[in-house]
Amino acid sequence: MIRLATHNDLEDIYNIEVEVYDDPWSLESFENELESSTSYVYVYEEEQIIGFVIYWDLGEEVEIANIAVKKSFQGKGVGRKLLDFVLNNTDALYYYLEVESNNEKAIKLYTSFGFLEYNFRKHYYGLNRHAKLMKLIKG
Predict the structure, then answer these.
(1) How many distinct structural domains can be found in the chain?
(2) Of 37, 60, 73, 120, which one has the greatest count of Cβ atoms within 10 A?
(3) Is this prediction's pTM over 0.90?
């Protein structure tokens, strides 16, 4: 089930973030996202929260700011369901995201939805850790 996150979910969301990413967002960053008028935080929950997505809805544009799935649930379609949820529950024309260039699983997921690389940022995530900027145009 995908549902809007609440403050009660912050600890679970943060724990997933820390498990999945080398340079995780701070707990305060997640709190700020819950308070923002343009930010949407959703969780994927079965018997526990196993994934989340954060996106910024800017009208014609949506930026997928963060998406993560617990390592033990990766490869089971949870990330696909979260991304599909964003694409089918917003009315934007343009969708943007960034992904570490060596994250082949995520890049494969994004390209399967039609995202294309449009730019590249060297050392964005640290020395020799580059970012691919990707976009999808719906319409």
Answers:
(1) 1
(2) 73
(3) yes
Closest CA relative to residue 79, chosen from 118, 107, 116:
107
Domain that holds residue 47: 2-137
What is the CATH number for 54?
A: 3.40.630.30
**Per-residue buried b or exposed e for 40-62, using 16+ beta carbons within 10 Å of the residue's own CB:** bbbbbbeeebbbbbbbebeeeeb
